[in-house]
Amino acid sequence: MRYAVLSDIHSNLVALQVVRDDLADAQIDRYLCLGDIVGYGPRPNQCCDLVRELDAISISGNHDEAAVDTAQAEWFTAPARACLLWTAEQLRSDNREFLASLPRLRIVDDRITICHGSIPDPDHYTVTPLDAVLSLEAMETAVAFFGHTHYAEWFASTRDGRLPAEHPTPSGGSLRIQEGVRYLINPGAVGQPRDGNPKAGYAIYDTETNEVVIKRLAYDIAATAEQMEEAGLPEAMHARLWLGV
Ligand code: ZN
Question: Can you tell me the distance from the alpha carbon of 136 to that of 50, in angstroms, rounded to the nearest whole number?
Fold first, then answer.
């Protein structure tokens, strides 16, 4: 089975299309989406449409939840909140229903757990090995994918009392799944990377070869920035795309 794992698309259709095109010949059996399909970016409906078209097994992120229940937007920073209120206005009713229907956690094919921030708490940022322990101890599968931080990286744990090893992969990389080890993997963000590399991130997990490949792809940032400017979205939100922060 070959899974494509996408996270934090954030209404960045230009980036999502580049990822979709790159995966066209990758013999993907199933697409997984780790939430935050919308928020920040200029094309919320088109991104929902594409995720639905790919028949991706999806969960919700905090931005998806706040876009369909704007009372939650008050917990966000002022620019993020402005994007969410704009997104809420733009969303077609079918896409609002789609986002509202998404669960917060899923176990896919009895072997992969997908969550947004962490397994116990979708809003928790998994940044350090200590954060990773919360998910690595709670997971019921050997492999889990998470997003929310927009950093491509993975943690591995043999659960021998030591902290899990952290492996940042901002330029892409690969890992081989070993027997008896638990893995918590962030494929990076499709639509708003924050690990210093502005390229779109995603991962492929091949259960035959036991390999996970984390990839980065250049996309037309100027095109997304222009769409954001036209939509009147806060300048800080497109400025950061160039820097990957
Ligand atoms: Zn996000």
Answer: 31
DSSP 3-state percent helix, strand, coil across the chain (nearest 5): 35, 25, 40
Q: How far is the CA of 198 from the centre of ligand 1 (A)?
A: 14
Which one of 3.30.420.40, 3.40.50.720, 3.90.79.10, 3.60.21.10 gives the CATH number of domain 2-242? 3.60.21.10
| d(CA 189, ligand 1 centre) in Å | 7
pTM listed for this prediction: 0.97
Write the single-letter amino acid at 78.
A
* Ligand 1 centroid to residue 147 C-alpha, Å: 7
Q: In angstroms, what is the span from residue 179 Cα to ligand 1's centroid? A: 31
Give residue 201 CA to ligand 1 midpoint distance, Å. 13
Residue 159 pLDDT more than 90?
Answer: no
> What local confidence, expressed as pLDDT, does residue 63 receive?
97
